[in-house]
Structures are given as structure tokens and as C-alpha cells.
Design brief:
The protein is an all-beta fold and 121 residues long. The model has no long low-confidence stretch (mean pLDDT 96).
């Protein structure tokens, strides 16, 4: 099994910053991509940002230029620096990791429990 533990959520005023972190542990042979998703009330979960094992990144349009995703491969951690936060960024943020648990195993997505980010206007 693989566990993802997130930290860093909270309440911030519009224009402020937060940094989310996530650590993967457990049965890990390799971690391919890692990313952050979010889900606002009554909305579908959406991809926020993803980073591959090679360091390539991709962001949803609404956070481009404001959020930065980074990872430490050796520690199996991923972070999301969120600047210039807006009320519409309010959501539960989920860490995700595409993990191969054994040398012969398939890649599988694992999810964290989520951390609340609330941006007040």
C-alpha cells in the first residue's frame, strides 16, 4: 500500500499565499507523475498541476502564473506554492501520485485525504 499525506492548507485572504506539501510512503518502487487536484463544493474534481518524473509541468489555465508545482524525487514529495490566491481557489486540494509498487507492477494512482484551502475576499 501507498500512503499520501498532505499538509499546508488553511485560511488566507485574497492575494495571499499558501504552500501545500505531500509525502508519499509505503510500497514504492518508483513514482512517475505527482500532482494536485482540487474539488470545490458542488463541482467536479479538477486537475490543478502535475509534474512528471522528468520534471515537466502542466497547469490548469486558471492557476498558470500563480501556482508552482515542484517535487523532490529522492524523498517522494511534491509541493504546490500558491500565490495571488483568489476566492475561486477555495476547495479541498488532493495530492495524487502515479506509483509503481514493484519492479514488475503496474502504475497506479494513489490519493491523499485532502486538505482544505479557503480564500476569503
Amino acid at each position: 500500500q501507498v500512503q499520501l499525506v498532505e499538509s499546508g492548507g488553511g485560511l488566507v485572504q485574497a492575494g495571499g499565499s499558501l504552500r501545500l506539501s505531500c509525502a508519499a510512503s509505503g510500497s514504492i518502487f518508483s513514482v512517475n507523475a505527482m500532482g494536485w487536484y482540487r474539488q470545490a463544493p458542488e463541482k467536479q474534481r479538477e486537475l490543478v498541476a502535475v509534474i512528471t518524473s522528468g520534471g515537466s509541468t502542466n497547469y490548469t489555465d486558471s492557476v498558470e502564473g500563480r501556482f508552482t508545482i515542484s517535487r523532490e524525487k529522492a524523498k517522494n514529495t511534491v509541493s504546490l506554492q500558491m500565490n495571488s490566491l483568489k476566492p475561486e481557489d477555495t476547495a479541498v486540494y488532493y495530492c495524487a501520485a502515479l506509483v509503481q509498487s514493484t519492479a514488475w507492477g503496474r502504475l497506479k494512482w494513489y490519493w491523499g485525504q485532502g486538505t482544505q484551502v479557503t480564500v476569503s475576499s
